[in-house]
C-alpha cells in the first residue's frame, strides 16, 4: 500500500533542501504572501505529512517550483519534481 503522506512529505522536503530553504525561510516566504505560518507549524505539518493541497501548492509556489512530475514504476510510486524537459505549448489544440 502506498503511503501518500510520506511521498508528498518527501517531495516537499526534497524541494526545500534542493533550494537551500529552511522551514524558517519558508515561514517568512509564506508570511510575505499573507499565509500565517510559523516555523513550528511548518515543522509539524511536514513531519506528519498530512497537510492540505492548498498548503502544498502555496509552499511550491513561494519556493519557485512551477511544475512537478509523477511517474509510476511497477507498483511503487516515484515522485520527481521539476523535470528537466521542456513541454511544447499548444495554441488552440495545435
Amino acid at each position: 500500500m502506498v503511503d501518500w503522506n510520506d511521498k508528498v512529505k518527501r517531495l516537499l522536503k526534497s524541494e526545500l533542501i534542493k533550494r537551500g530553504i529552511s522551514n524558517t525561510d519558508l515561514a517568512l516566504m509564506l508570511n510575505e504572501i499573507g499565509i500565517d505560518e510559523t516555523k513550528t507549524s511548518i515543522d509539524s505539518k511536514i513531519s506528519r505529512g498530512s497537510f492540505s493541497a492548498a498548503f502544498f501548492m502555496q509552499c511550491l509556489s513561494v519556493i519557485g517550483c512551477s511544475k512537478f512530475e509523477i511517474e509510476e514504476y511497477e507498483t511503487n510510486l516515484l515522485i520527481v519534481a521539476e523535470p528537466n524537459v521542456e513541454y511544447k505549448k499548444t495554441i488552440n489544440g495545435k
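Residues 85-90 have pLDDT under 50 and may be disordered. The two ends are 40 Å apart (CA to CA).
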